[in-house]
Amino acid sequence: MPRPSPFRRHLRHAPRPQALPAPPEEPHPKARGRLTNTIGTPPTIGTPIEPGNLSTRWRVARKRAGLDWLRLHDLRHACASFLLASGASPRTVMKTLGHSQIGLTVNTYTHVLPDIERAAVDALAKRLLG
């Protein structure tokens, strides 16, 4: 009989995986489909967030924070701008936002970041001109 490899011997003595935790209990019937205290937290029953519920929670949180001027969609634009400013590729931003075409992302967001364009031109000039 062939001798088992050291790897197989190790596997024989390795600890066994732990059991998975028990699934959460069913939520209270009146709580189904409602958001929790955090904006954007999905319902516990695994259904999509109701747009009306999200909008209502956003308005309440926005008012409490004194940001009445801030729209929920403004957070989307801020996310894209921050990603681009931190060096993320336009393709990454496109996927994050769910755009179907890269052109939409580039045309919408790169014009607000002239510093990135300036840095790219400076880097090119440095390579070409030394």
UniProtKB/TrEMBL annotation:
SUPFAM superfamilies: DNA breaking-rejoining enzymes. GO terms for molecular function: DNA binding. It comes from the Bacteria. Residues 1-122 form the Tyr recombinase domain. Keywords: DNA recombination. InterPro entries: DNA_brk_join_enz (IPR011010), Integrase-like_cat_sf (IPR013762), Integrase_catalytic (IPR002104). Residues 1-15 have a biased composition (Basic residues). Residues 38-52 have a biased composition (Low complexity). Residues 1-52 are annotated as: Disordered. It holds the Pfam family Phage_integrase. This is Tyr recombinase domain-containing protein. It comes from Streptosporangium minutum.
